Amino acid sequence: MTTTLDAAPGANPESSAAPRRRISWDRTVWERIALGGLLIGTAVMYLWNITINGMGNQFYAGAAQAGSKNWEALLFGSLDTGNFITVDKPPVSQWVMGLSGQIFGFSSASMLIPQALMAVAAVALLYGAVTRISGRTAGLVAGAVLALTPVAALMFRFNNPDAVMVLLMMAGAYCTVRALQRGSTLWIMLAGVALGFAFLAKMLEGLMVLPALGLAYLIAAPNPLRTRLLQLFGATVALLASSGWYVFVTLLWPASSRPYIAGSTDNNFMNLVLGYNGFARVLGRNHGGGGRGGQGPTTPAVPPAGQNLPGQTPGVPGAAHGAAQGADAAAQRGGGGFGGFGGQSHGLSRLFGGEFGFEIAWLLPAALLAFVLVLISRGRAPRTDMVRAGAIVFGGWMVIDGLVLSYMQGIIHPYYSLSIAPAIGGMFAIGVFEMWRARESWFGRAGLAALIATSGIWSYILLDRNSSWMPALRIAILVVTLLATVALVIPWNGQVRKRVAVVALIAGLIGAMGGSAAYAVTTIGVAHQGGGPTVGPVMSGAGGNRGGMGGFGGGGQSNPQLDGLLENTTTKWSAATNGSSTAAGLELSSSTAVMAIGGFSGSDPTPTLSQFIDYVKNHQVTYYLVQQGGRGGGGGTPADTAPGNIGGARDTAGGTRDTTGGTRDNGGPGRPAGTAPGDPAAGNAGGGGGFGRNGHTDITNWVAANFKPVTVGSTTVYDLSGYTG
Q1: Which tens digits make up the pLDDT trace of 499-510?
Q2: For the whole prediction, is pTM greater than 0.85?
Q3: What does 548-586 look like in DSSP terms, one character per residue?
């Protein structure tokens, strides 16, 4: 009976129904093949030689290793199995990598493969969301744009928390789109759950998509206003529950029996949320770890005595780092170069210039244009129109998050822009296919041509900033996209001519994504380590490692003799040293727990001198370590342990900063860091392993006054084991 109703009047039911089933089946098969190709291609691309990145950012690798060995370390995201201190982010990313290490054994592969698989999941979710808005072909384009975005190719093969955060943000957007289709309470609450866990991945940054999702649902959900408001309230409750349980765990768990919450001033998780990892990131007022980023490009961050900033090679004096800072400043003016860390110019141009441009901006202008075009095109559509709702989801996400990134005055890395990569892919695809559907009108043809032309011209401009690399590529992209633009403007009539338009669209899309794809593929072939990884080909003199000149969290020089000493200890912590990055590196090389005094920035108020003396007296830590060349000490090198200079002397080799920041006071031999009038490092004496203020020179002084130093490779070692008090 069903077949008879579907048949045309007077037609043979069997003969008319069979062709429709065959055509539908063929199309479904090809769509599934295309989706499978997209996901398999993404997996192969991201998993290919992934261990080239080694331990990536050793700061997070140390915590992943600890989580693979100890359940409490896994729960809290501790840096060490002794559970002295956490990393300065919530632990969701550490849960994934630590659990993988527990199942498969900790290694570079067990740590990084889950990150790559998150890319496949994010592409699949973006495909699913855009397909429900603009069709399967648009979904394929959106997923391809995300997979071929350079910052995605960089960070989904790295061990920073950004990968899991962006996956969860994308999950929230997908659930919202599903909720919009039928006004579903369940799906909008699932969106809240996803964003709650995104918060536990990287705090407030994970919630940057929230305003766009809430606005889209409030405007377009097919329910009465009262129902929409109640559903959004339920989603908010779900968000608070999915994130708040962990906050309550940290508050209710006795502080004396859990690790210190790194980055906080009072061992309180909410202090970390609202301060160091919250509003301070935007306003540039990070306590102790801000790198003086809020002062703008004319005052680059200055390391404490003998220390290295994130992005500075351990052991390289300040003069060399000044050159690197100069490169950062040039990059932020649009000249290419390194990624930078804080202290950059801020404003609407940030995402389009320097390293930001190479990482995220390839289709950003076109996506912004698509946002405007879709809103105009669907201006008279019903309130519940899915295309306009999709534009609010992805366009709103892109604009709101992009503005925050553009105007942040605190610590910022270009790779933070990964947070808008799915939004750009989704908005670009929705815009292209909305204009394609409207191609019978002059507005549709002009809009489609403008999107392709904008993408090609902007790719040419970006590639021209690195003009020595594959110069023919930018010419080819420009020619292909401009020819496609001309073809798409013409009002084709007839079946054959429409096929020409289809070919032009395909060529235009290939050209539009060509520059981004080339940079993404090149990024995958280069090793990345440290705290400031960057995209694209190896720059001259970079030594094949795009890790931000070593970067905080980068691998230091190996010291097998020191590793042997630590491996032979039996105390809870084999050693103590200033700064989490140094401690993490020692943990990875020795497979022992190392106490990170002062946490990531060196300024966390733990341990106090009396607490440290108790640790030593109770034989819980065997060695105290001071790295020559800067990291890990109390503000100086072993030579600084002479009377009057303990932990205080400035590294006079690093006297000159780049010209954008003026001249740094050399201080002179024996002058404690920060005592020179006008010194930007004022009050920053100590330092070790991190940056910003350091309140632990008292520990260094006490150790130097009570124990004899011995040099082991590049490290000064104090044996604390014989102390009785």
Answers
A1: 888 999 999 999
A2: no
A3: STT-TT------HHHHHHHHT--SSEEEEEESHHHHHHH
